[in-house]
Amino acid sequence: MKKIFAKDFLWGTATSAHQVEGNNINSDVWAEEYSEGSPYKEKSGDAVAHYRLYREDIKLMASLGLKVYRFSIEWARIEPEEGCYSKSEIEHYRDVLNCCINNRIIPMVTMHHFTSPRWLMRIGGWSNPNTADKFARYCEVVFKELGELIPYALTMNEANLPIMLHELFVNFNFIPPVGVEAKSWTAPGWRESAAKACGADIENYFTFHMASDEASIKIIKDAHLKAKRAIKKINPNTKVGLSLALPDVQFVKGGEEKAKEAWQKYFKQYLDAIKKDDFFGIQNYTREVYGEDGQIPLGKDIEVTGAGYEFYPEGLKGAIRKVGKDLSIPIIVTENGIATNNDERRIEFIKRAVKGVEACIEEGINVKGYIYWSTFDNYEWTFGYSMNFGVIGVNRKTQERIVKESARVLGKISKNNGLDEVN
């Protein structure tokens, strides 16, 4: 039987530091969690204690047959105050990387996954053009220490998410991929409290999630390019990319222009920054369908996930196909997943999504990996711990790991390098 996936195809799972490590006290999001009137339903606290339990966790991933672990290095830990770099935190992440390598897990590192150091808010955050240089400097410090251990790096996670947040909140009150509620976009009161906690004022308080205007998008793209340059200068062998959150944008008759506008905002406006990268990270959870009046709300008969999305695993292949029309660089699925308490639906989602990737490869699209979100049931931002994306459950009272059948299925797909023989 013909093998669709290359021998070095990347099968794995993903996390982000703030959502699993716990006690990310020097970050802007931690300040938001504790702000007066905060929209966060729960505080992250110890999260799932991955900062302490990473060795056991990585060993568990390896035992399941997973080949890749995508995780983030936390800027707020590495540089808790501007220009002050924590040697102990660098050594922590060195051990995480070595633990991956020793367990034959390929590490894929995200340098920024939504959270920023509190001190960045004092100088305007992601509205300050100088932030691009400060981010690149942080990447340079990390790669001088750890670069030889990092074969794949994403500079930033879902650089376009602020646009999606703004569009979905303002127009539809839909839930975007990072679980943040609509009221948090338009209610400045709690942000004043968060700004104060960061030692900033409301005029300067500008987090990554707010970067949806033309000026801040330019800063985001500049930060990516400068960080990539810094990384490649130190370790040319590291493959560097950027990830974008991309629903499969579809349309019904009359919605062609609205769909085109959405794809331009979500993807095409970033082409100038990513077209020369080593790979592109695509992150897909569902589809968006447009009519002549804009995005069409979900009907009552549509199956929705715990995150409020349409259950539509075929969205991944649709998004990959669209990306493939404009990009010639390799594509890695750096996130794809479902929030559900029904693990049978998760297994169905994974199998259908992987089948879609298989179809794209057969069509000649250069897809190099599939990384599921998420490794664990973890902290989902303003929704706290109420959404379960993980293939591994966690008893947060004891921090015991509970392997779901979906983890075994994904591990079997990884070991078989495809869907063959996976029941």
What does this 3D model show about the protein?
With 423 residues, the protein is α/β, with parallel strands linked by helices. It has one domain: Alpha-Beta Barrel (TIM Barrel), CATH 3.20.20.80. The chain has helices at residues 17-20, 28-33, 50-64, 75-78, 87-102, 118-121, 131-146, 161-172, 183-186, 188-197, 214-234, 256-266, 271-274, 315-326, 343-362, 405-416; strands at 10-14, 68-72, 106-110, 152-154, 239-245, 248-251, 279-284, 287-291, 294-295, 331-336, 367-373, 392-395, 400-403. β8 and β9 (294-295) form a beta hairpin. α15 packs parallel to α16 (405-416). The longest helix is centred in the middle third of the chain and has 21 residues, at 214-234.
Q: CATH superfamily name?
A: Glycosidases
* CATH overall fold name: TIM Barrel
Report the order of strands and helices.
EHHHEHHEHHEHHHHEEHHEEEHEHEEEH
**Can you count the helices?**
16
Broad shape: globular
Number of strands: 13
**Biggest sheet features:** 8 strands, parallel, barrel
Distance between the termini: 17 Å
- With strands numbered from the N-terminus, the spatial order across the biggest sheet is 1-2-3-4-5-7-10-11
CATH architecture: Alpha-Beta Barrel
Name of the CATH first level? Alpha Beta
Strand content: 5-15%
Helix content: 40-55%
Structural class: alpha/beta
Q: In angstroms, what is the radius of gyration?
A: 20 Å
The averaged pLDDT comes out at 94
Q: How many domains comprise the coordinates?
A: 1
